[in-house]
User: Fold Wall-associated receptor kinase 2-like from Capsicum annuum.
Amino acid sequence: MAPNYVMMMVVVVVNLMIFFSLCFGATVNMVVKAGCSESCGNISVPFPFGMTQDCSLHRQFLVTCNYSFQPAPKLFLGNSTIEITKISLTGQLSVLRLFSRDCYRDGIRTNSNSPWLTLSSLLSVNYTANKFIAVGCDTYAIVRGHYRRHNSNISESYVTGCMSMCNSMDDGDNNLCSGVGCCKTSIPEGAWSANITLSSYNNYTYVTDNNTSCSYAFVVEEATFNFSKNYLSRLHNKKKLPIVLDWSIGKETCEVAKRNSTAYACKSNNSDCHDNSIGYRCSCMQGYDGNPYLEDGCQDTDECIDRKEDYRCAKDAICTNTEGNYTCTCPPDFTGDGTECHRDNPQRKIHNNVVTAVTVGVALLVIIICSWAYTGFQRKKILMMKKKFFKENGGLVLQQRLTGEEGNRIKIFTAEELEMATNDFDKDRVVGQGGFGTVYKGYLKDNRIVAIKKSKVIDRNQIEQFINEVIVLSQINHRNVVKLLGCCLETEVPLLVYEFINNGTLSEQLHDKVKASTFSLDIRLRVAAETAGVLSYLHSAAYPPIIHRDIKSVNILMDKSYTAKVSDFGASRLVPADQTEISTLVQGTLGYLDPEYLQTNQLTEKSDVYSFGVVLVELLTGRKALCFERPEKERSLAQYFISSVEKDNLFDILDDNIVCDERNRVQLKNVAKLAQRCLHVKGDARPTMKEVAAELEAELRLKQSWAQTDQNSEEVESLLQGTESLELGYKYSEHSINIDSIANHINLTLPGAR
Ligand SMILES: *[C@@H]1O[C@H](CO)[C@@H](O)[C@H](O)[C@H]1NC(C)=O
Ligand SMILES: *[C@@H]1O[C@H](CO)[C@@H](O)[C@H](O)[C@H]1NC(C)=O
Ligand SMILES: *[C@@H]1O[C@H](CO)[C@@H](O)[C@H](O)[C@H]1NC(C)=O
Ligand SMILES: *[C@@H]1O[C@H](CO)[C@@H](O)[C@H](O)[C@H]1NC(C)=O
Ligand SMILES: *[C@@H]1O[C@H](CO)[C@@H](O)[C@H](O)[C@H]1NC(C)=O
Ligand SMILES: *[C@@H]1O[C@H](CO)[C@@H](O)[C@H](O)[C@H]1NC(C)=O
Ligand SMILES: *[C@@H]1O[C@H](CO)[C@@H](O)[C@H](O)[C@H]1NC(C)=O
Ligand SMILES: *[C@@H]1O[C@H](CO)[C@@H](O)[C@H](O)[C@H]1NC(C)=O
Ligand SMILES: *[C@@H]1O[C@H](CO)[C@@H](O)[C@H](O)[C@H]1NC(C)=O
Ligand SMILES: *[C@@H]1O[C@H](CO)[C@@H](O)[C@H](O)[C@H]1NC(C)=O
Ligand SMILES: *[C@@H]1O[C@H](CO)[C@@H](O)[C@H](O)[C@H]1NC(C)=O
Ligand SMILES: *[C@@H]1O[C@H](CO)[C@@H](O)[C@H](O)[C@H]1NC(C)=O
Assistant:
């Protein structure tokens, strides 16, 4: 390989790593539940805290993000006025509180305020970080409240306080709360309420420059409070002061909590439990990092990259990351245990001279190439990205596709663009929800309406489906397929942006009484022909061929002119060029699932033919593919349809909204026969999608010709045979809705499980 080529490869790989880490980086160290907002402004909100009932562990961990504050939104505890500035997973909460003040002028109270603090049962004032402080020249301050004794659920009350005096405003030391002008004391460990009372010792006779006398008192994070003599007259210019609170996940001790594994909050593997003054809290074990309250929240840290103070490998040693730990080994030519490495004696070194020279030469070359390629990027970052990159190897393929020939078709949106478009993923904008994630309606700046699909991240499969869908859709350019406009790579949750389709799904169209009544046979046939056309295209015109795998009426969207738009390619498979069938885990939706595929796990194009057959029957009968409310023999639509046709009862099960006249009867019979063939137990006996599409299009053409001339039914039949596939001209748009998990359904007999 020419060196130039090597360099190019290195550059490409490095770029891919960066791309990939942008796309999926945050999935590695998740701190929130899937689909939950991760922050309020720049304040991170890790689970168990959350902004909605579903996102938080329970009510005590609810926080409210109020966006009406400028420039940044503010976060509050529950619906209280306690403003949060930082949530730490090590069990602390930094909050801001108003302080008490009491001002007099000429012996008359002019300005007084005494906010009190009451915390919920899982919170307490941190004993080591906070102090009770009073400021004033004639002040005594008393704080009363309650505290929990260590490891007990009994609350006791406390009262304490201090007195601050001074002779003049120049008394006291700046930066030192010494008792002159400022006094401080501790409040008991486990305190969960505080009520401050301020009084004067000498009847408010001491006045400052404005004939005013003020006293202040507050509980405050000691490290942030730096006393200044100015405060004696002007502290009230400050609005709020910081306090550090401790939070616990439960009131029990670790020992008690572990007994009930459903309630035990340390959900992640590799997590530890710690007792504290309120109850217990969780942490990730040494060597792991992340959120112990989420399943799989604790992830292995790469100690070789994040070298902590206790990093024990010697300078020359080779560090290798292991699960939960790391090892140090001395390089060849060195002896030692890795924490110390010594060069071997010189004789052996000379002996190995040639090898060393070659090794060094190669190493130098590699270093030169690498440092050239790494320009502009921190080596450390790249290493970390590389790790993630390989973990999620599907991204390579995605990137190749996106930057390949078809790259320009797909726009890469920024996170802000999509946040603006969806009003920060407002609940009101949700238009669909399912196993894959959530679909939001969004308005882009250029007034385009889009559907934004936000996948769930927690599951690896979802990431694969996301990649899959991008790859598949980037290859398809068909007017009856939902158009992928772009994706967003900056968020931890992969986002796909589609054109918005405004008329719901085929399923809604068929199963909503009002909508179904205006859904004529002509339109139904057209929808069927269009869908068949798409599948035929996917199976034979696309390269490599694509099997959709989840054809169902819910995945066929309708625009205003009832043009069909096939959506949801999350489960689709590209068929390798030299194979006609692939072995996969069975995936799909009951009611539509090919019984042969279900039994053999061999996925072929004929599985889509079967699913399409079910959709066709749905179009004819207006019944649901699977309906547990019906008598047992009618539950599976496919099975019921076949038995009805075999008994010549076709016209009894047709949708009432389909008007049957003499001409229709022949046509309906033809379509029913076609559906019957699609639903054949043996995949080989089913027609190809190409044949299906051609037949349906012929039927459609026939209908159209009826509109012009009045022909009799013999001519119709002969016309039918001679018709080739034809193109249909309709307009499009789209959006995406829902998927049913196969796991949600009950056993049932399917046609063909004979
Ligand atoms: C959030 O931003 C504000 C100002 O923009 C800054 O003062 C504060 O330190 C930031 N907080 C965090 C947790 O980054
Ligand atoms: C947000 O704060 C504003 C101003 O303080 C207040 O009027 C509003 O009610 C708050 N909104 C919520 C949802 O708490
Ligand atoms: C919010 O406040 C109302 C009354 O002001 C109270 O009933 C409710 O429980 C509070 N909700 C939370 C989560 O604290
Ligand atoms: C208080 O906060 C510190 C860290 O700021 C923490 O180490 C300590 O455990 C907390 N709790 C108590 C009761 O001191
Ligand atoms: C906490 O209270 C419960 C009843 O409310 C009692 O059974 C339990 O013994 C108490 N625990 C401690 C440590 O006092
Ligand atoms: C308090 O502030 C002064 C400057 O205003 C600074 O010199 C001093 O170091 C500060 N003290 C602390 C404890 O932060
Ligand atoms: C706080 O203390 C004052 C005076 O002792 C009392 O009147 C007030 O009710 C107390 N407030 C609370 C919430 O305990
Ligand atoms: C404070 O003033 C009140 C009346 O204004 C008086 O009765 C009282 O004795 C004074 N107390 C002191 C300590 O000066
Ligand atoms: C004195 O009081 C007046 C009115 O209350 C206020 O506007 C002014 O800022 C005060 N001056 C000082 C130095 O506190
Ligand atoms: C303070 O009070 C004295 C006497 O009551 C008065 O003469 C003086 O003007 C006052 N000063 C201010 C700044 O209000
Ligand atoms: C365990 O915790 C769950 C959830 O809090 C609760 O429903 C269940 O009753 C508890 N089981 C026992 C044995 O305490
Ligand atoms: C990591 O490995 C070292 C050396 O093998 C051992 O001393 C240490 O206890 C291990 N640490 C953890 C957290 O397992």
Observations:
- The first strand starts at residue 39 and ends at 40.
- The pocket of 2-acetamido-2-deoxy-beta-D-glucopyranose (ligand 3) is lined by residues 59, 62, 78-79 (CB under 6 Å).
- Confidence is low (pLDDT under 50) at residues 1-28, 389-394, 710-754.
